[in-house]
From TrEMBL:
Keyword terms of this UniProt record: Acyltransferase, Autophagy, Transferase, Ubl conjugation pathway
Protein name stated in the entry: Ubiquitin-like-conjugating enzyme ATG10
Family statement: Belongs to the ATG10 family.
Matches recorded under InterPro entries: Atg3/Atg10
Pfam families xrefs: Autophagy_act_C
Organism the protein comes from: Basidiobolus ranarum
Gene name for this UniProt entry: ATG10
Length: 201
């Protein structure tokens, strides 16, 4: 299965959260809200990224991650040795148009200002960054209104998601239990998001 219905997406997300809990890694949350006349949900993950070296967009930057404590998602501090902290929020939302998940991301600098698209692109490796920027229409990463929260986020456009999944999976069947981890590790690196290998053992 490459494309999903909304019900399948929600089941896949709940399987993923249960898997995280069983691994002792319950950093992903299922958020649900009433939208129009029905309840809709999405996956949410927050982390703080330490920028240990910041350079121009043509050069690479070195990054390391620190997971946020549950009640610590609003910190904006300069770390030791003047390191810069970026607070990042990722949402995985269902796209009814493409019938696949799509990633929304936003972030704040240590001073509390929103990160720009070029800063968000700094979260990924140079070769992926180049590929995203080659896509026309916003370079594949577009600032737009979150479909549920109605607030600004950067959206990683899902138009190629199904074909990327099909190319990697081939003729094999992608189950609901493996769908979200596979999706995150194939598509997420474009915006600095990935899972540990324990999700695939």
């Amino acid at each position: 299965m490459i494309t999903l219905t909304r019900v399948q997406f929600e089941l896949a997300c709940k399987h993923f959260i249960e898997q995280g809990v069983s691994l002792g890694n319950n950093v992903w949350q299922w958020q649900e809200t009433k939208h129009s006349f029905m309840k809709v949900g999405y996956l949410e993950y927050r982390k703080t990224q330490v920028i240990t070296e910041f350079t121009t967009s043509e050069e690479t930057i070195e990054l390391s991650e620190i997971e946020l404590e549950e009640n610590d998602s609003s910190r904006f501090d300069i770390g030791e040795n003047g390191k810069i902290l970026w607070n990042l929020e990722y949402h995985i939302v269902y796209s009814p148009t493409y019938e696949v998940p799509e990633i929304y991301v936003r972030g704040w600098s240590d001073e509390g200002s929103y990160l720009s698209d070029s800063q968000i692109l700094q979260l990924t490796s140079a070769h992926l960054r180049d590929d995203i920027q080659k896509v026309k229409y916003g370079g594949g990463l577009t600032c737009m209104e979150h479909p549920i929260l109605r607030t600004p986020f950067y959206r990683l456009h899902p138009c190629e998601t199904a074909s990327v999944l099909k190319e990697v999976i081939g003729e094999k069947e992608l189950s609901l239990t493996s769908y979200i981890p596979t999706y995150i590790n194939l598509i997420g690196p474009s915006v600095g998001l990935s899972l540990s290998l324990e999700y695939f053992v």
